[in-house]
Design a protein that fits this description.
The protein is built from ten helices and ten strands. It has 348 residues and is α+β, with helices and mostly antiparallel strands. Helix 4 crosses helix 6 and helix 7 runs antiparallel to helix 10. The relative contact order is 0.14.
Length: 348
Amino acid sequence: MYLDNDYSNVEEDQVIEFTIEDGLLGQLKLIEPLVVEVIGSNERLFSSFRRANGSFTFKSSSTGARLLKILSRGQNEYACYFPAHELNPYIELLFSCARKFANPLLFSSARGVRSDEVVGTVDALNGFVGEVRRAASVQGFKSLLRGFSKASNKRSKSLDAYIDALFEKHSRLVVIRLDLSYESRVSHRKQNLQDSLRHVKQDWARMQRDLHKGVPIKELLGFACKLEYGSSKGFHFHLLVFYDGATYRKDVALAKLLGEHWKNIVTVGRGRYFNCNHQAQKYRYLGIGVVNYLDTDIIKNLKGRVASYLAKVDYWVRFSPECGRAFFRGNMPKLSAVKKGRPRSLSA
């Protein structure tokens, strides 16, 4: 779930947890297209092969083998590391059917069943696949799928338009990316999560008010922010902030000012931050820093890599509705009848 991680200041056991958590999101991204592949075909994923001596052996297609590998892991890890979230409907559909399956041990033991159990195993697993396909065909699932992806798609388009509007008014922007988090993690118990979430949102409300007031940096142009939660990192924010490039140039220093304000003022020493601009030279696709409206490649990366993460990760896993809003963005700039910023003096 997290991009551009920095593990230089954490303990070894936390690094392991971070790696697990990031790996789990990667797995979710692989599960969704696999389920789409399964329900979009009529392929028989499992079969039996009779040997010359009359015994049977279990066989699976490539798709079937990948499906069993996922199912053998189960859903427990996802529930542990993302306890306040909902999974993508395709992924939840798969695990929901798996929870109803009469013999879940077959997901991990199918290849090792005795010869006299092969035919029954094949029938059971193909029946499971049939149930997944049937569940995906009902109207309720299709409606759920549309609703799940609609918000992130709308958010992505809105954020692109927001960035375009900022460049319409300003020829050069200072784009700052910060990850804001906390020194200590919270308990996984649901009540503790909800209590912590209230405090986290109070901190963000304070941070947002200060940004608008020009504290610690004057003349904010815009921002976009995504709240996330993970077992290892707890609650944390991915924040994009925009300032006028005609007024400011030192993006790393500005990012540090914002991070220190979060750490020392907003959270009164409980916060921590990662200054992504300080590591900008390490990024394969640069989309932050001082960006001119003619820097088409950087703007493309800003929208397609940096900003899109804030909008699209919810396609795989998102906060449960009871957690409330998780995405925040500034108001769309008001454009004059004559577009500003084209061309503008770049001498500042």
